[in-house]
């Protein structure tokens, strides 16, 4: 049976923003909760990001209001006003301060938000809030995702619930497209912040579907304290594990993806350098299409490593697909293409790269590039 | 009638490297020619690049030997030996010094070059050299290109002939995949070098098909002096124009491409900053797929601009497709999606971006991302 964190409820509806699927959700805490959030670094960030940063600044939130199907980005002054109206409408319905509401919007960029539809949909929602509504919230925030991403963990009597969405325009820089993490543990906002940053760095910030950092990336974490204290070391470990699991789900469900790709880089000068090389592999359209086609064209990995901005000692590089070595200590192995072709039939491809000269390591996740990615993105608004 | 530069001849054959198409060509100058060349900055550069750098170092070349269908990259010590064997075999046939032969190889990475096939194919080729063989050479160097790229220009009695190939793994950094420029003008190697660098920067180095810099990029220019002196200012202008024309052909014939995309950026802090933003637009899979699908999803341009590493004053940004403005001085225009959808039916899409705060400008070229790109690259070696 799924455990939900104490004192959190939610509900989801169709407000008619684009079609008749769930497109609006409210997540509510019975009491004000400690809060931390991380947002996109995209300079054309969405209007809700601007408002969200203001609202989380004091370290407290009590509700999250999210619409899908429209990102409210590049929408000028009206967009900013619409984001404020969304928080005010939800705050009025819940009887709380609008500065304790985090707004989020995800969907098409550059189209004005039909705010009147949201304003009409909100009255009466307070009565529909349910403790087991969170799984439906994970569904209501989806755009091109093919399934909701929702996970829970318990530590003693403490529960953490986390959801995420994101399938295209995914190379999070500070946070994924949208992710909300709720816990009934009692944790100060400053501690939440520290733990969230570390967890996001090795999870959401280590994923790329298409190298395009979204204008709407948000990860927000609320701790309402209703289940009491928790061991912070254990909490951080569980939180990190949870974020990695959701991040991998985002890569696995990347637009049009048929395979999850994990790249493990070791022997780099620094963790940052290792991550940069790993990201360049999962962002290479040549590598991604070869993996989609199950084509043992491993030379493309070498080319991508060679393009690294950092100096690479090419004589000490080794590359393997799981345990199939194609390049060892600077030289190609005997022709392994047949073995590699067999391996590539898997739906989870593991690429290990050893640069051989440093202590820096990183693991990143991505997905293949298929016909369906082209189809989904060639027809997105029409 | 096509004019060819005096004293240059060439021939092309099938050496059986992979299939029965033309895969080997020799370009020969009757006399030693002043020469300049630029090569890939990829650290896993091909064995022919290593040898080519050595051979052009003295500012002279007399022949170019190129095979397609195999890049001789990531092939270890044998690869380096094979590249030397190729130049020695060709030099012996032509009766010249092997240090005056530039070798090039293009095709799959990580597969050993079948050098014995090239060694068998060379004897007798000297007798087949023809002045009008250059157009066939442009064909023999093709891999996934769908047509040869060959252009000539005359300045008085001076002729310049230029060829290029490249369709995938194209984001040249210092040179395109392969390009050879031949002239009978008398120009010193130092002058050739200067002019070539400037021309390449605004042409081949301003093109991207897929953001992957190849391991084999080479542009080499030979001036054999047989037609005498030329005005260097006029020559540089014609050379630059010629390189831009070939660079655009490479983008237009990008793997799977259905549309040429030109991005003009102005108002940046520097030309380099403008080029970086332009490149990020033509490398965005979301922008590329939207253009393939003729989907007026211009918000993706805003998101890509917002991801610039350099600070952007978002309130002064304007974006238009040709003359259709979608965003002006920091705000969206009235909904232009219908007009934009109509415009996108063109096969040459022009995107103009004004950042509004500086004197830096750049023009870059790319292409859309289609189903065929995925098909070509999912099945490349199998």
Task: Sum this structure up briefly.
Two copies of one chain form a homodimer. Chain A has two domains: 8-252, 4-Layer Sandwich (L-amino peptidase D-ALA esterase/amidase), CATH 3.60.70; 260-378, Roll (Ubiquitin-like (UB roll)).
Walkthrough of the structure:
- The structure is a homodimer of 382-residue chains.
- By secondary structure, the first copy, chain A, is of the alpha+beta class.
- Chain A has 2 domains: 8-252, L-amino peptidase D-ALA esterase/amidase (4-Layer Sandwich), CATH 3.60.70; 260-378, Ubiquitin-like (UB roll), CATH 3.10.20.
- In chain A, 31% of the residues lie in helices and 29% in strands.
- Chain A is built from 11 helices and 14 strands.
- The first copy, chain A, has helices at 47-56, 76-94, 115-121, 134-140, 189-201, 232-252, 271-282, 285-292, 299-306, 337-343, 371-378; strands at residues 8-13, 24-39, 60-70, 101-108, 149-155, 158-165, 178-185, 218-228, 260-268, 318-321, 324-328, 331-332, 348-354, 360-367.
- In chain A, strands 1, 2, 3, 4, 5, 6, 7 and 8 form an 8-stranded mixed β-sheet that branches. Chain A has a 6-stranded mixed β-sheet with strand order 12-11-10-13-9-14.
- In chain A, α1 (47-56) packs across α2 and α5 packs across α6 (232-252).
- The first copy, chain A, is globular, with a radius of gyration of 22 Å.
- At the A-B interface, α8, α9, β12 and α11 of A face α8, α9, β12 and α11 of B.
